[in-house]
Amino acid sequence: MKIICVGRNYAAHIVELQNEKPKGPVLFLKPDTSILQKNQPFFIPHFSSEIHYEVEVLVRIHRIGKHIKPEFAHKYYDEIGLGIDFTARALQKELKEGGLPWEKSKAFDGSALIGDWFSKTDFKDLNQLNFSLERNGTLVQEGNTANMLWKVDELISSISQYFTLKIGDVIFTGTPAGVGAVAENDILIGRLEDKQAFTVKIK
To answer: What is the extent of the structural domain holding 94?
Structure first.
């Protein structure tokens, strides 16, 4: 399986990081070694003291697809989740300034937290999903999929033009504004509508 991540999919987050608005979805990959194992803490890696949380709605693909049209994209997934794209921000900035790939800052071991999965039929409208992240009991990020520049079905269609989607692939659909650094002993809790999707401790 592969993890396909979408960058710059919320306008406020683009402004927050002083990036340019892209003409199409910004894509990058994480390997399966980036998946944080269930019920395990996130360990701040030795190479960075500035790790940011980025909460994101996730989609899990359940059939093989290539060159998928947007109107058929809904047939390729039946589960929605929530996760965190942990990012070594200072390292990312350094790599971007040098015109280099982001993988060291985005795809390191444990950088992809994948929470519980829920049937998409549990939700009334996937284009109006509320989601949030709490840090030590304080709300730090909240978003709604209505504010995506590219909606889930559009993302699936676009991604499938470049990568064959396979059963079990996971798409991270982008983060809203409010990203920030984690610290040792933080507790992060993610919620998708009224459902708690994950909790993780930082070590």
So the answer is: 3-201
